[in-house]
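BUG: 3D viewer hangs when loading the predicted structure for this chain

Environment: internal workstation, default settings.
Expected: structure renders.
Actual: progress bar stalls at 90%.

Input used:
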Amino acid sequence: MEHKVVAHTLDGRILKGITHDFDPGRERFHILPTEGGGVPIGLRVEQLKALFYVKDYLGNREYDPPPGFGTAPSRGRRCVVTFIDGEVIFGTSPDYVQGATGFTLFPSDTADNNVRIFVCRDAVQSVEFPD
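Structure tokens produced before the viewer hung:
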């Protein structure tokens, strides 16, 4: 299946494109970039901060999501993720397991451009469960 994604790497790169083969249980995956030709870029899962599955590639840089839990339907436990770079995202996770490679996070704001996010453990400072 084809997914629009934006990959944020631990070294600060941002790659936009399509992936067909992302699987957190595998070591590598590929992104076919939206710009720069049709040559897929190979990435290792361990290089990621997070893989954002998006509605569109433009997003809205001016958009500032409201703090707290919004109106999105719950898809697991409510949690607050703080990344090592200081970014904070509120959402729900159906598959968080401490010590796993990563987990899925569904943003709590329905206006968010992100449909879901694969969060990599090595990029996380903390995960809090307010419930």
